[in-house]
Design goal:
The structure is a single chain. The protein has 242 residues and is an alpha+beta fold. It is built from seven helices and ten strands. The protein folds into three domains: 88 residues, Tumour Suppressor Smad4 (Sandwich), CATH 2.60.200.20; 83 residues, no CATH class; 34 residues, no CATH class. It starts with a strand and ends with a helix.
Length: 242
């Protein structure tokens, strides 16, 4: 279920359009929700924090009867623009988290809770949470509501603290995954290839052939010297000009 949505009033009744995560466009060429007759202009609805932004020429939209080009939105606000009428609806972030956990698969809900607990503990370790909130929870350490504590501490993070938490958690994960400097990652041992019987036989026959060839050449040289007085040394001397 979406955190925020709009209800469009039409002659046929009411239409519900859940907002995209981040940005939802009304009207315009790339609209998520089309408005008849609107091509170039668009309304941008941001979900967190809820905000309306008008891009284009007049007429500007009205929110609860007040003309504006940009304004924060509250649940129940009525938006009117180019003949279309929308009511902005939303549920509290805390209620959304509880609803997500109830409707999620048990293992997914457990992962969400574990992730929030770990992040909150990591933020405390790096001194990123609000000091007063941390002091209150430390005072009730004997009766700690872990999930509520994690949610409240994480809610105290400002933009800079959230960025630092993201960077610190990335470094922590890298140190757990990567091997220490100077120490190579453990290698998976590989089995030495077994010597195939055919390879051994081939080697034996090559060696036997080489020895037989040397013996044959030696026999020919001895026969030539004994029968015809031909000497290999004499051939070499003549070739060298000796």
């Amino acid at each position: 279920m979406a955190y925020a949505w709009i209800e469009r009033t039409t002659p046929q009744g009411s239409e519900r359009h859940e907002l995209e995560r981040g940005l939802t466009r009304l009207g315009g060429a790339r609209a998520h929700v089309a408005i008849e007759g609107v091509v170039d202009d668009e309304l941008q609805l941001w979900d967190d924090p809820p905000k309306l932004v008008h891009l284009g020429a007049e007429p500007h939209p009205t929110v609860n009867g007040r003309t504006c080009s940009e304004t924060a939105l509250e649940p129940g606000d009525v938006i009117e623009w180019r003949g279309a009428r929308f009511s902005f609806r939303a549920i509290a972030r805390r209620a959304q988290l509880a609803l997500e956990e109830e409707t999620a698969a048990p293992e997914h809900a457990a992962r969400l809770r574990a992730a929030r607990r770990l992040l909150a503990g990591f933020a405390v370790e790096h001194e990123l949470v609000d000091v007063d909130a941390l002091r209150r929870w430390r005072a009730s350490a004997g009766n700690l509501e872990v999930d509520r504590c994690a949610e409240e501490l994480l809610r105290t993070l400002d933009k800079d603290a959230a960025r630092k938490l993201l960077e610190a958690s990335a470094r922590e994960l890298a140190t757990r995954i990567e091997p220490p400097r100077g120490k190579p990652a453990p290698r998976v041992p590989r089995e030495a290839p077994a010597v195939q019987p055919s390879t051994a036989r081939d080697t034996f026959w090559r060696l036997a052939f080489a020895l037989a060839l040397v013996a044959a050449i030696g026999a020919v040289l001895i026969w030539a010297r004994a029968r015809h007085g031909v000497s290999l040394d004499a051939w070499i001397d003549r070739a060298l000009g000796g």
